[in-house]
Design brief:
The chain contains five helices and no strands. By secondary structure, the chain is mainly α.
Amino acid sequence: PYTTLFRSEKPPAFEIATPLVDDSTEEAATTLQRHFRAHLARRTALANLATLASLLNAQQSAFVPPTSLVFQPYNGSTPKLAYSPTNATFLAHEDFLVGLLTKVDAVQSGGDKVVKTARKDLVHQIERELKRLDELKDGEWEKLGAGEPEKSADKDVEMTEGEFDFTEKSVLSC
């Protein structure tokens, strides 16, 4: 019995069988790889969107709108905020949101409906916050009584084509 354990003979060599690869096996492997890559791309995209959503939530909770806003001198167009320390937090928040939209847009969906839906939802959240900022700005503009440009009552205002003067004097003269 001991002699068989300590023999110096080499163990028999085993041949490793090479698997038979036919077209169906190759096709199955390709399909599996494609599905795994799609799953990995979805998981990565959703993780990126979740990170961006948490940045949005953190920024929204930290943002405290200023008690008042300072505007640039009125030039007949949409009122613009002045670049002042008073407006710094407001402008920084608005800039953050626009930058975040760019980052969300960079997340590739690869045609995945789940990723498209998640990205669209996040874009809507950001757009709602931007709309809220616009409403704050418009409300502050109206509070300042700056909603209408100053016009002299006894001077006629030159109208450009397509505009109509709805003052009482012009309506009665028609």
